[in-house]
């Protein structure tokens, strides 16, 4: 049994929840507010970040990259053709590049700002940096998202899925990030039909269902968030 | 034959040069100033970052994570017990965690600032953000380095190498980052004997030699940089 230390609106944590479900595994959850740097989290992960995954009484697996590789190395054989990592080293490199693009670059330049300014800061005390969103951070994120959407649109127009002909970890990395931005109504769907159609396919997967019914107290989801036919 | 697109003082590029040498492969180099966003780089890697590795006329392998996995997947069997990725999934997760710590967190919080402010900005035109170093960025980096050194000291005091009993990719990731900071005289060696002794072992590896004789025009290396007995 896995234990997942996570926050419901941490995009990397959402990615791990999705891929655990896709690999047919199960987990119990420990909700964590990473900005509080709780002792139980720091003892598992000195970086103080989520997600952290623990299998039974094994060591802590820290961060989405090490977790996805561990999951594939220990469960990949069992899921057979539903495996989310391609076989060929070149295709694997492309999948890993796009996982890092989504959870790294896209998160740093776009979604990370949106989640921090509009969700985390509502829950943080002022002494820890909480309070009103920083409008200049949001402005930058909202300008940046168009460049990323255009690139994702280019990719899914030329391939069946984000990193190639088969569904891969890259699709779930991007879906996890977009789902957080979409909750906040921050995704300009109208400008990129190809991304919208790809995301509609992702939304219809059973692994995404639990996420689409999640709510933040006092902050309803955007109209598109749970709608499979948005 | 590999072609490596890199910058001599990009820590992630240094990491790739080190592990290619450790895996007994060879490469021809294409020097790139990533801040110029040259067309030949953007065509290979839409993120515009180095390192990018290309094998013969294969696709571009972008970024240190995808590159290390590719190298291990295609060459790991051949290097046998000099392989830099452990066998067990749990040990692999620990190696990957520390590679990400070094090239990600440590670079973002410390070495990336030092390299950008003191090396890249000397070569960048003012219109592209070049010029005098930003002293507040350097101050933050110099404060942060102590926390990281303490953590690295704790790790190498309790293990033979950074991520466990065997030399791994994690050691080269950290050595690559520290080598850039050390060139600038920015590593407080005196405060962490264990890290210093570990780095002395790393420095004596043939793969590190070419790097230790590199120089930036008009900016000599620190006294400790090339000294094996610093």
Automatic annotation (TrEMBL), chains A, B:
The keyword Isomerase appears for this protein: no
One Pfam family named in its UniProt record: GST_C
GO biological process: glutathione metabolic process
Organism superkingdom: Bacteria
InterPro entries: Glutathione-S-Trfase_C-like, Glutathione-S-Trfase_C_sf, Glutathione_S-Trfase, Glutathione_S-Trfase_N, GST_C, Thioredoxin-like_sf
Record domain GST C-terminal: where: 88-228
All copies of domain GST N-terminal, residue ranges: 1-79
Keywords: Transferase
GO molecular function ontology, one term from the record: glutathione transferase activity
CDD domains with a match to the protein in the record: GST_C_family, GST_N_family
Self-association state and partner proteins as the record states: Homodimer.
Cited PANTHER family: GLUTATHIONE S TRANSFERASE D10, ISOFORM A-RELATED (PTHR43969:SF9)
Protein name: Glutathione S-transferase
UniProt source species: Roseibium hamelinense
């Amino acid at each position: 049994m896995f234990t997942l230390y996570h926050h419901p609106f941490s995009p990397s944590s959402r990615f791990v929840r999705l891929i655990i479900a896709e690999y047919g595994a199960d987990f119990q959850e420990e909700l964590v507010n990473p900005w509080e740097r709780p002792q139980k989290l720091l003892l598992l992960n000195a970086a103080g970040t989520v997600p952290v995954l623990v299998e039974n009484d094994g060591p802590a697996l820290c961060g989405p990259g090490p977790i996805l590789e561990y999951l594939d190395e220990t469960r990949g054989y069992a899921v057979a053709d539903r495996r989310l990592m391609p076989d060929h080293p070149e295709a694997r490199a492309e999948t890993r590049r796009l996982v890092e693009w989504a959870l790294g670059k896209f998160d740093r330049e776009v979604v990370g700002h949106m989640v921090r300014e509009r969700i985390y800061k509502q829950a943080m005390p002022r002494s820890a940096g909480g309070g009103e969103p920083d409008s200049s951070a949001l402005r930058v994120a909202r300008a940046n998202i168009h460049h990323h959407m255009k690139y994702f649109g280019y990719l899914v127009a030329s391939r069946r899925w984000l990193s190639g002909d088969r569904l891969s970890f890259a699709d779930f990395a991007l879906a996890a990030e977009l789902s957080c931005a979409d909750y906040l109504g921050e995704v300009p769907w109208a400008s990129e039909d190809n991304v919208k159609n790809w995301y509609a396919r992702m939304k219809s997967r059973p692994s995404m269902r639990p996420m689409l019914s999640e709510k933040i107290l006092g902050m309803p989801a955007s109209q598109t968030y749970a709608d499979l036919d948005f």
